[in-house]
Amino acid sequence: MSEISLRTEDLSVGYRNRSVLENLTLDLPTGQSIAILGPNGCGKSTLLSALARLLAPLHGRVLLGDADINLANTRKLSRQLAILPQFPIAPEGIQVGELVKRGRTPWRGLLSPWSANDSEVCRQALLAVGMQELAERPLAELSGGQRQRAWLALVLAQNTPLLLLDEPTSFLDLPHQIDILKLLKDRCVNNGTTVISVLHDLNLAARFSDFIVLLGTNGLVTKGAPDKVIAPAHLKKAFGLEVRIMSDPVTNRPMVVPF
After folding, report:
1. pLDDT at 111
2. For residue 186, what pLDDT band results from cuts at 50, 70 and 90?
3. CA–CA separation, 84 vs 197, rounded Å?
4. Nearest CA to 4 among 33, 34, 29?
5. Using CA atoms, how far apart are residues 207 and 157, in angstroms rounded to an integer?
6. Has residue 53 got a pLDDT over 90?
7. By Cβ atoms counted within 10 A, which residue in 96, 210, 219, 220 is the most buried?
8. How far is 162 from 106, CA to CA, in rounded Å?
9. Long-range contacts, 16-22 (Cβ 8 Å, 24+)
10. pLDDT tens, 29-50?
11. Do strands 194-198 and 162-166 pair parallel, antiparallel, or not at all (unpaired)?
12. In what order do the strands lie in the sheet with 33-37?
C-alpha cells in the first residue's frame, strides 16, 4: 500500500458557518490503526467527514500527501481513500453481494468489463467479515450487525490505502467487535493500510489502536500513543470522567476503570 499521509493544516470545520472544530493541525501516521475518541457532540464524525471530503472546511486544509483533497480529482481520490459513514444509505432491495460490488466502482471505467479480479476482491471482502453465506440476501432483511459487516465489506472491496470508518463496530456484539478490530489491525500490519476509526469504547481503542486523537468539547485534548493519551488527566478533561488506569492483563496496554 502507499505511504501517502493524511493531515490537516489549521482546519476549522462545521455546519452553516458554525465551527465544530477550530484551528486543528494534525499529522496522522501512515500504516497504523488510528482511533478518534471523545464525548458525544465533540466533533469526531465532523472531523472524519472533513478528512473524507464529505464536508468542506470553513478554514484551513486537509492534505493527502501534498495535495489538498478538496481540489483533487474525485476518481483518483476514491482510489486512495474509502469512507464508511455513520448512517450509510443503500438502494432499496439491494442484495449484499451487489452492495459489495459497488466498492469496485472507482477501479472501473465506463467501458471496463467486470473482471475475475473484481470478483475475487469482493469474495475476499465478504469472507473477511464473515458474510460470504449471505451474499444473495437482501440487505434490508439482515440484522443491524450483519448490515454493518456488509457495509464494511464494501469498503474493503474498494481496496484503498486509507480507510475512514465512523463507528465501524456499532450494532455489533462484543465478539464481532473484536473480530472487526483485529481484521482492521491486520490490514495495517500486513497491507500497510492506514485505518482511521471513530470509536466509543476506550478500552478497545487502547487495545487495538497505534495512535489516538482525543477530542473534548473545546477541540483537541491530546494525541499520540495509547499509553500517552489514555491517562486520568486527559480523560477528565475530555469526558469529565474520573478514572483509574490499570494494565490490560492481555496486552499490558492501558485499561480504563471509571469511578
Report:
1. 73
2. very high
3. 9
4. 29
5. 26
6. yes
7. 96
8. 14
9. 17/58, 19/58, 20/46, 21/46, 21/47, 21/50, 21/215, 21/219, 21/220, 22/59, 22/219
10. 999 999 999 999 999 999 999 9
11. parallel
12. 81-84, 162-166, 194-198, 33-37, 211-216, 219-224
Q: What does the DSSP assignment read for 68-135?
A: EGGGS-HHHHHTTEEEE-SS----TT-BHHHHHHGGGGGG--TTPPP-HHHHHHHHHHHHHTT-GGGT
Average pLDDT over residues 156-175: 93
Tell whether the model's pLDDT for residue 257 goes beyond 70.
yes
Q: Give the type of residue at 101.
A: K
Q: Which pLDDT value is given to residue 4?
A: 74
Q: What are phi and psi of 117, to 5 degrees?
A: -65, -40
Let me know: does 121 contact 104? Beta carbons within 8 Å.
Answer: yes
pLDDT value at 181 more than 80 = yes
Instruction: Indicate the angle between helix axes 116-128 and 144-158, nearest 10 degrees.
Output: 140
Cα 108 to Cα 101: distance, rounded to the nearest angstrom: 11
- All cell numbers assigned to 85: 459513514
Reply yes or no on whether the pLDDT at 62 is more than 80: yes
Determine contact, residues 68/62, Cβ cutoff 8 Å: yes
Rounded to the nearest 10°, the torsion over CA 115, 119, 120, 125 is 140
pLDDT in tens, 93-150: 999 999 999 999 999 877 778 889 999 999 999 999 999 999 999 999 999 999 999 9
Contact 223, 214 (CB under 8 A): yes
